Amino acid sequence: xxxxxxxxxxxxxxxxxxxxxxxxxxxxxxxxxxxxxxxxxxxxxxxxxxxxxxxxxxxxxxxxxxxxxxxxxxxxxxxxxxxxxxxxxxxxxxxxxxxxxxxxxxxxxxxxxxxxxxxxxxxxxxxxxxxxxxxxxxxxxxxxxxxxxxxxxxxxxxxxxxxxxxxxxxxxxxxxxxxxxxxxxxxxxxxxxxxxxxxxxxxxxxxxxxxxxxxxxxxxxxxxxxxxxxxxxxxxxxxxxxxxxxxxxxxxxxxxxxxxxxxxxxxxxxxxxxxxxxxxxxxxxxxxxxxxxxxxxxxxxxxxxxxxxxxxxxxxxxxxxxxxxxxxxxxxxxxxxxxxxxxxxxxxxxxxxxxxxxxxxxxxxx
Length: 366
What we know:
The chain has 366 residues and is α/β, with parallel strands linked by helices. Helix content is 49%, strand content 14%. Strands 1-2-3-5-4-6-7-8-9 form a 9-stranded mixed beta sheet, sandwiched between helices. α2 runs antiparallel to α3 (72-88), α2 crosses α4 and α11 runs parallel beside α12 (285-293). The N and C termini lie far apart (61 Å).
């Protein structure tokens, strides 16, 4: 084996070992802190990382010997030592390579993983509403990577073992995430928690598909395609401490242009989303009624259509959807909210998002 390749492998093993050792120390400190306050905590993550770090140390030692000897015989001995270390610690190495947080996956951990698809790495891109904003690239329904932003509430960092319910936040602008057009939407989510009206949520904002000026108009043709996004659920569930994907822990929200997407997702797939809320939207009542009629399972969807009192068009559109579903004898339970009013549209939107988040929290609790 060329000497340059041995040096490269040595550096990769050293970096991976350092990262795993640091991660194990962090997990160990969290465990000690939890024991101090008599909280439940699992020691396995710290032990797995420690074992993986030890495996990397063995690799570093073997590769270091091979580099120093620089002879073919020494290389064979080093490779044999590495293989022996891998067989002894394969269980720990495989467990350590699985993502349990939003931390990036190291190159050596990815190399030792199973042939299953590589986990998505999310990186911090800023802070919003007291929480942390992460970003990654997740394959879309067409197979092409698209941006996904994940907002972690302040409570996420305080409670190292808690799992959080999820809000999927739809965008109505092609090629953009919802927070790009509505930067204050996370403030509405956070304020609902601060006022004691909802438990903390993790908010997932996928990039809207391109090819049309109004992505949510696509729901008229295929509402189920908007709702069922297995790649998104898998990536988020693997990288963050969220409740399992399903109606007990996942919900959907859309504001303004993204409202029809959220309404279609909630009505079409109540088996995936326990509740849906659409704020200040304009809807195709016929298309949404068709989506509800084709929903799988015996449980009806739960949907809130909210609009400000002064938004007469939005109020009328929401009532039309409610009436159409009622006339079709749909199983869906649809509520409307039309009482919010404030001095500016921005303040009204903040309050409407707060109402929507409260509704989602109440419905998921049921």
